[in-house]
Amino acid sequence: MNLRRQPFELRPDARRVLLRPFMASVVVKPTGHPEPSRRLLDVLARVLMLDDDSVAETLESVLAEFHDRHVDIRAIFLERFAKLAPLIPVDRPLDEARKLLIGSYFTNEYSLESSALFNPSIVPAPDQSGLAPGELRFILSLRATGEGHISSITFRSGIAAADGTVRLDPVSKFVHSPRPEPAAKYDLRLFRRKLFELGVPHHAARAATADLPDVFHMPELVTRTAALRRDGSDPEIVRAGERAVSLAEANYTVRFKDGLSLSEKVIFPYSPLESNGIEDARFVRFTDDDGKVTYYATYTAYNGADVFPQIVATPDFCTFHASTLNGPAVANKGFALFPRKVNGHYAMLSRQDGVNIHLMFSDHPHFWYESQVIVRPAQPWEFTQLGNCGSPIETDAGWLVLTHGVGPMRKYCIGAVLLDRNDPSRVIGRLKEPLLRPALDERDGYVPNVVYTCGALVHHGVLVMPYAVSDTATRFASVDLHELLDALRRGSH
What we know:
The chain is an alpha+beta fold. The chain is about 20% helix and about 30% strand. The mean pLDDT is about 95.
């Protein structure tokens, strides 16, 4: 096949920085809740002892050095001060300058993509106005990785021409990550079920959530957990309460303010389940039976020890609702939602056993109960592991699924299979050789010998595929769809 690599690369840019809560001697984590440690109190005391002139001079220096790197630095300093205010051992009111200075001591810049910018997915943008004939505006999601190997979701936008070539829009030097809002309410029965799935003992989960109403709100759960600690409850029950709060925080909404360009928007880890990163978002443009369009993305939340599959939904890439995926079939990584219902049901690809591609059906996108293996490793380049590379793409010939295969020396290649449109459990085509292997100049990076994607799209008969290069940077390739489909059919015989 005539696969074309495009002559440019998206590389991580260390200059794109977020303002994050800072605690001395602690790697930046998502929540950054202040702790009344001796060191924290000592810093507060030193700033409080400064005379007014020293405060003004120091603050002026800080603002002069950092104000042009952030659009709202003063507001963030004041917000950070507000979190610390209960710990300040003085009764007198503080002027704004001292509040700002205190906030600056507990804030730091975080370079969200200093290490890597990879594992892309691509979807058509909601707004397709103002384009030339044959053009498609797209949104590219990327996994950005920075200090502490913490991953977040960042975005780019661009235009694909009819021949599959792409051009990217300019990237802003500013980035913004709004404060998430907890879910409005929680169903107690479903909430307990999820705690059981996470391995919390049944008796402890029930005791920790006792006295909560059938539909409860976050403050009620926080109050209940605080009471367990205060009353000296059984440590196992207290731990169950803390796990319950973590679970509740994993269901939240992110709202970006108006006027931001897409490249300024960052979904940074928020909940304790995400404390070590949000990984490998697979976005898909989902069309419901009534024609309503929702952009879903499945992703992996990682807390440093365990992975937790999650799903995020947005109608417009301005408001994002993150939720847990639930049910006994929710395990491991690699979940990818089909772009529409199949035979009246939501359908999802997955990799519960870490080796094979599974297929699942459900009546609700957040709940999954059973899966079946539909594709197993068959060729030497995929003997170690096989998984999907994003959501299936519907074609007249069937569901096109890009795959990743892992072979000798942990080398990752991208392949493809074709599933029956009406019965996606049937494999009707498969490539015997990879569609894309790491080229000579793609073998070196954070994780060598890897090409990988979290999603592609078809435009004017051309498959447009962004792909990661050795877990470091992102490139684009394209291939004629009819050539690919012919190769898939030949490979199945």
